[in-house]
Amino acid sequence: xxxxxxxxxxxxxxxxxxxxxxxxxxxxxxxxxxxxxxxxxxxxxxxxxxxxxxxxxxxxxxxxxxxxxxxxxxxxxxxxxxxxxxxxxxxxxxx
Length: 95
Known about the structure:
Layout: H1 20-24, H2 31-51, H3 69-91
Helix pairs in contact: 2-3
């Protein structure tokens, strides 16, 4: 069984020391990117939860609650903020 020549071992100058470039290349994003991404997912869930509801028990009766401020204005703003933060988290350069 031959070894893969593309895999390189880290440069060790001292016992226990490793090359930081190899550790940074392990993940595509940094810690801050993942935190922002999870916050954006939370905002999306909250926004979609705010949009839910407003149905009528009787299909022949229209429920005016569908047009509440929460469903028409607040929830879409929260969802758009979640998408904007998610895009920012993806394009932000990892430190």
